[in-house]
Amino acid sequence: MIPTGPDRPAIPLLVSTPAELRAATATLLDAARSRADAADAGDARLSLGLVPTMGGLHAGHAALARAARTADDVVVASIFVNPLQFGDQADLDRYPRTLDEDLRLLGAQGVDLVFAPAVEDMYPGGEPLVRVSAGPAGGVFEGASRPGHFDGMLTVVAKLLNLAQPATRASYRAYFGEKDAQQLSLIRRMVLDLDLRVRIEGVPIVRDHDGLALSSRNRFLSDDERSAALVLSRTLAALRDRAARGEPLDLAAARARITAAEGVDLDYLDVVDPASFAPTAASGPAPHAALAVVAARVGAVRLIDNTTLPAPH
Ligand code: PAF
User: Fold this and answer.
1) Which one is the CATH code of 218-307: 3.30.1300.10, 3.40.1180.10, 3.40.50.300, 3.30.420.10?
2) Minimum CA distance residue for ligand 1 atom 9
């Protein structure tokens, strides 16, 4: 019997194999059903929320877990540093692994269960031969800079969505941050194209007091690099203000502002359709429902950020 509801422990239950995950989610849903019955809400549809992560958690992940805790009866988080989505072995090796802190953060948000498999648990026969392909939209922007990244990401997300899928007729949601906007749009597209039975929830970017978007990689920035990195969020905010005023965006000037920042190596700054990631206006006013996206290397750290551009009123 796994304690749930008000008796939930401060540190969530930790499992590492797919079989343990399936058994534990079934037990948690049963317990939630008993609580609903005891409260005489027997016909209420139960829901399970999944929060996939790679660990190295921060307040942005806490916001995902909180959104799930608010909406769902049972909340499961996963922590898995997925080798398939790293092109660079050095980047994979130095990705933060902070399991104890992560469990405390997830426990504080009321997460019931954490699935933290080893690589052999997720890929028992070695790397999978069959993978999900992100298609052309996975080859632009982040995909152009990190070939294969989105195929690897979608492959593990498809597996995680399947592994945590409730066996009962509970409804099912999965939560992803809007900071990884291209990732989120590809996951939505995969769910649509492959008819996966899950609802994808995007959760707004969480920023530090000075506007820097939270990222597991920020911990690798020196103080000077962190200050330099602020040019990204500030340039996006300036674009958002111009869009709100109906002024031409002048992306060339915005790019020049970033390029001029010491130690910041701009990869891209563009305005895209949030669903297809096709570039939209280069210099005119922002079209309806556009997203400004940026990526840059600051020192050795690659950072991304984005903002929605309001339609002019
Ligand atoms: O955004 C992440 O942390 C990862 O890409 C995800 C979605 C957990 C898949 O490994």
Assistant:
1) 3.30.1300.10
2) 153
Give residue-wise pLDDT tens across range 144-200. 999 999 999 999 999 999 999 998 889 999 999 999 999 999 999 999 999 999 999
Q: Could you identify the atom of ligand 1 that is nearest to the CA of residue 82? A: 10
Other C-beta atoms lying within 10 Å of the C-beta of residue 313: 6
Q: Are 67 and 201 in contact (CB under 8 A)?
A: yes
Residue whose Cα lies nearest atom 6 of ligand 1: it is: 53
Catalytic, 61? Answer yes
Q: Are 61 and 105 in contact (CB under 8 A)?
A: yes
Please say whether the beta carbons of 79 and 164 come within 8 A. no
Look at residue 1 and tell me whether its pLDDT is greater than 70. Answer: no
With the most atoms of ligand 1 within 8 angstroms of its CB, the residue from 81, 82, 188 to mutate is 82
Choosing from 58, 61, 209, 313, the catalytic residue is 61
Fold for 13-203, please state it: Rossmann fold (3.40.50)
